Amino acid sequence: FCWLFLKEAIVKLNLQEESIKSAFQKVLNEFRGVEHRLEYIGKMKGLEVYNDAKSTNWLATRTALEAVKERALPVTLILGGQLRGHNDEPPKEMIAELSKVRVLSIGESGAFLKEKGHNFEYYESLNDVMKLLKNEELQEGLVLFSPAFPSFDQFKNYVERGRAFKALVKN
Fold it and tell me: Are 149 and 80 spatial neighbours (Cβ–Cβ below 8 Å)?
């Protein structure tokens, strides 16, 4: 349906195929993504930094990990937030994936995951994690903030959490 509508619009507007291709390519080249959804923030001490603060469940975090795999860089994953009371531990099929990355956990769920014996580093807050990363001598890699949990233990919502993360990266 959409393609038929597009074809009809092209004919009615008397558009040239090359100008359409050029316009689409311009949109693709200039699109910067959506805020807090696997958003590229820039570099911090040579590390690529991505903000996926919208991630509030394990599936979203797994998807984000899959998306950054193509970068072929060592990954530091920051996760954590408010416990849900169900599905708080990573799914069994995700445990192997998490063992391939460095996991820094924060907040209420971070303490829970450490208590459950997961091999994640635990820090009280996002601020603590960012201090650590800024003081480390990491040469290359990628930092992915994809919390897998709701933000309500330390933030009003995921937007506030995402903006706090970006501010900590840039300061």
Answer: yes
Least confident of 23-37, 49-63, 151-165: 23-37
Return the SS3 of 103: strand
Provide the sign of the torsion angle of the four alpha carbons 90, 96, 101, 104, taken in this order.
positive
In this structure, is the dihedral angle defined by the CA atoms of residues 137, 106, 145 and 88, taken in order, positive or negative?
Answer: positive
CA–CA separation, 171 vs 166, rounded Å?
A: 9
65-74 pLDDT per residue, tens: 999 998 899 9
CA dihedral 64, 69, 70, 76 (to 10 degrees): 90
Kindly report the backbone phi and psi dihedral angles of residue 123, in degrees, each rounded to the nearest multiple of 5, phi listed first.
Answer: -135, 150
Distance CA 27, CA 48 (A): 23
Residue 121's SS3 state is strand
- Give yes or no for a contact between 169 and 42, defined as CB atoms under 8 angstroms apart: yes
What is the per-residue pLDDT for 33? 66
pLDDT grade for 8, boundaries at 50, 70 and 90:
confident
pLDDT tier, 147 (very low <50, low <70, confident <90, very high otherwise): very high
